[in-house]
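Ex. 9. Protein: Acetyltransferase.
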Amino acid sequence: MKDKLVLIGAGGYCRGVLDSLLLLDSYEIVGITDPATPIGTDVYGISVLGTDDILPKLFESGVKKAHITVGSVGNCSLRKKLVEMAENIGFELVTIIDPNAVLAKDVRLGKMAYIGKSATINSDVEIGNYCIINTGSIIEHGCRIGNFVHVAPGSVLVGDIHVGNESHFGLNCSVLQGLTIGNRVIVGAGSTVLRNVNDGETVVGIVK
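Predicted C-alpha cells for Acetyltransferase:
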C-alpha cells in the first residue's frame, strides 16, 4: 500500500513537481490545498481539495506525508511559513527526485528537496533542507548548498562552491568553481559569477 501524500500549493511549480510524482508512482496523491484556487480545480488529474485550513483534518484522516509545492524567487518567506505550518501539524515533508534526474551515489540530501527533470548532481555534494534543484541544472562535485536554496533551470554551479541559506540562482546562470555565495543572495538570470558574493547581495551580468 502506498503512503498518502498531499501537495500544498497549486501554482506552476506544483505542476512540475506533480508530473515528477506521477512518473514515480510512489505515493497515493490525495489532493492539493491552495487558498487561491477553487475547490475541484483539476491539476493533471489531481483535485484541489480546499484551503490550507483542511490540512489538520487530512493529517488526522491518515495523510501523513506532504510536499510544499510553492516555490520561491528570491523571497522564501511564504515557503518557510508553509514548511513551519506543515511540520507543526505533524506532516513528514518528503523529498521528490524526478526519475530523469542524475545523482551521484554519495549525494547527501536534506529534508524535502525537489530535484527536477534532467538535473545533475555530481559526487560529494551536500544539499540542505527545503531546496529546489530545478530542471536541467548542474551542481558539480564538492558543492555545499544551504537551506531554502533555489537553483533555477539551466543553472550551473561548478565544483566546490559553498552557498548559504535562502539564495536564488536565476535561469541559466553560472558560478565559477571554489566560490562562496552568502545567505539571501540573488544571482540574476544569465549571469556569470566570478567572485565571492556577500550576504544579501543581488548580482547580475558578469560579476567580477
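Check your answer against this statement. The longest strand covers residues 27-33.
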